[in-house]
Amino acid sequence: MVKLPMYWYGVPLLCSVFYIFYLTGYIKWLIGYYILFLLFSPFLSIKMYLPQVISLFLPFTGISLAHNITSIGSGALRLFILWPIETILWYIDEILFFNYKKQKIIEPVFLIGQPRSGTTKLQSLVNEDDENFVSLLMYEMRYPYLTIQYSIDFFNYIDKVLFKYNLSKLLDKIRFFSLYDPKNERQKMRRLEMNLPDEDDIIFFYHRGFHFLMAAMMPNKYWYKYFHRLYELDDQIQYSLIQFHKRCVQKVLYRRGLNRTYLVKWVAGWNGQINLAKEIYPDAKFICIVRDKNESLPSWIRLFKLLSTDVMGRDSMSENPKLLKTFKKENLIWFHRQIQFCKSLQKTQLLTIKFSQFFQNIPNGIEKIYTFLNKNISQKYKNYLISQNQQQTLHQKTKTDYSDITPQEIQKFPDLLIELFN
What we know:
Radius of gyration: 22 Å
Oligomer: single chain
Shape: globular
Structural class: mainly alpha
Strand order of the largest sheet: 2-3-1-4-5
Helix content: 55-70%
Order of helices and strands: HHHHEHEHHHHHHHHEHEHHHEHHHHH
Strand content: 5-15%
Largest sheet: 5 strands, parallel
């Protein structure tokens, strides 16, 4: 059964907006603003986005035309409703909070690894030490506008003073902060919560139209390759993406990052983003967690299918097996790029840790990380790590599902546990 995502309502909503402006006689003003939006939007690269828009109107091999309707609805929402409004919010920040651009990002810490390697859990553990670290929360990536973020801060302040956080507890109880269906299989594998830290490259999904999940919207081999290979795009486009991300980080540090280290998780950075980050932040340090490929790869393919269903209401790789083959090839490239990147770093820049060893003894693993970063662990944080370690002992390992990738196919991938620990 195919679910109908909210994007299906994008086209009728857009038509309603145009019709209202037409009836009120302000259609010329609306068109004029759209022209300004196309010229000055911080989100839009016409050179990059126009081919994507055209592809939405072409049938995808082996995929129902209903998929095109969903994709067109999503594109319409972004191009004609969300991004034009959010462009105004971006420039309000530039006027009211222009000093954020002076915010320095000193010695950021990047948590890297292949998808399904334990980076989300690692980020949650380290980010709990909010005296030392600060990470971007999902809502700060979805709404990288200080105007919005300060408004949320004000709501939290009112909730604290008048309601003793009961409003926040209520919203959390009804899963208000959960993206998509909070009770499905994907949520059990990978949480997506607006009030929790997540992967920074989600910024590009919401605001620049470049993310591996965009392949779910345009399911053919060309776009699957395209969204896994930022490094093949023009240098100008590449650097505009990473500079946009830097501005978003500066805003959060300007607002709530005083004397704390920026902590970022970036598992999709093997598309070229992590190499750009290394250039932008020459003093950065990298912590790479490595998991057995026989566990991570089947889990990652399964998760991508579930994410595609969340985003588009359908699993395109099951409808067209050729897409699954392409997806595996692109991830093989990511494995090789990870090896190349990690071996390019100095010993003072990179700490590699094994997934199995780390989660057998979390306090010991965190201690190694803090030693590498020259930071001290408070007693309060030590107690937290001990409690987390006790919970981890209760974790039951899930059975590996080889329905999407066979053990023979996995053997074609390099063994990161050998390549990065010798």
